[in-house]
């Protein structure tokens, strides 16, 4: 019986990280599936090699419950003009799946109060469903 217990503990420790050969790291990721609350907007930054595109995703928690709103930031370099055009071309109501890095930031507001915010930086975006468009009357 004791050999069974010893063998079982060896197997458990070997298979604990069998899915990866890299060292474990801290990770803060979010997956959001929801609808764009508006058209994404581009903003220039002080760094000429980076442009910021911001958009909000509304996630419904049920028919009678208010949605949760998440503000997402996408960083785009000048070489990624197709990515920029794709993001800026998305219409309000588009259903998207956003894979993003998440981090918390602390700061003081204008009144000197300590505040905390959730920063969500897009890694990838997949369009799941385009909004219905009204037919143009002729």
Task: Give your account of this protein's structure.
By secondary structure, this protein is an alpha+beta fold. It has a single domain (28-129), classed as Nucleic acid-binding proteins (OB fold (Dihydrolipoamide Acetyltransferase, E2P), Beta Barrel). The protein has helices at 2-15, 81-88; strands at 29-36, 41-44, 51-59, 68-76, 95-108, 114-129. Strand 5 and strand 6 (114-129) form a beta hairpin. The longest helix is centred in the N-terminal third of the chain and has 14 residues, at 2-15. The protein is globular. It comes from Thielaviopsis punctulata. One of its GO terms (molecular function) is single-stranded DNA binding. InterPro entries: NA-bd_OB-fold, Primosome_PriB/ssb, ssDNA-bd. Its main location: mitochondrion.
The general outline is globular
Overall CATH architecture: Beta Barrel
Give the ordered list of helices and strands: HEEEEHEE
Q: Approximately how much beta-strand content do the residues carry?
A: 35-45%
Q: Count the beta strands.
A: 6
- Using the coordinates shown, work out and report the CATH topology: OB fold (Dihydrolipoamide Acetyltransferase, E2P)
CATH-assigned homologous superfamily: Nucleic acid-binding proteins
Helix content: 10-25%
**Structural class determined from secondary elements:** alpha+beta
Instruction: Report low-confidence residues grouped into runs of 5 or more.
Output: none
How many discrete domains? 1
Please report the number of helical segments: 2
**Most strands sheet:** 6 strands, antiparallel
Radius of gyration (Å): 22 Å
Q: What is the CATH C-level name?
A: Mainly Beta
N→C terminal distance: 83 Å
- The average pLDDT score comes to 85
Protein name: Single-stranded DNA-binding protein
GO molecular function: single-stranded DNA binding
Keywords: DNA-binding, Mitochondrion
Pfam family, one: SSB
